[in-house]
Amino acid sequence: MQCLDLRRINVEEWMQGCKKVIIQHGSRPYVLTITRRGKLILTAADTPLTGLPSKPINSGNHEPV
User: What is the pTM of this model?
Assistant: First the structure.
């Protein structure tokens, strides 16, 4: 499957005011963090994040670039 159009995601809307979110890629969780200076850091979670509350977000709000 190819995606011919790049998508633009507004991180502020996507994170809904949170400074950290968990991104699931396959079976592996990652943590996306916004720093105090507004930089984005993506790190692999050291351990599976089971038992944590998770609120799936609608990923349909993408705009082509």
Answer: 0.64
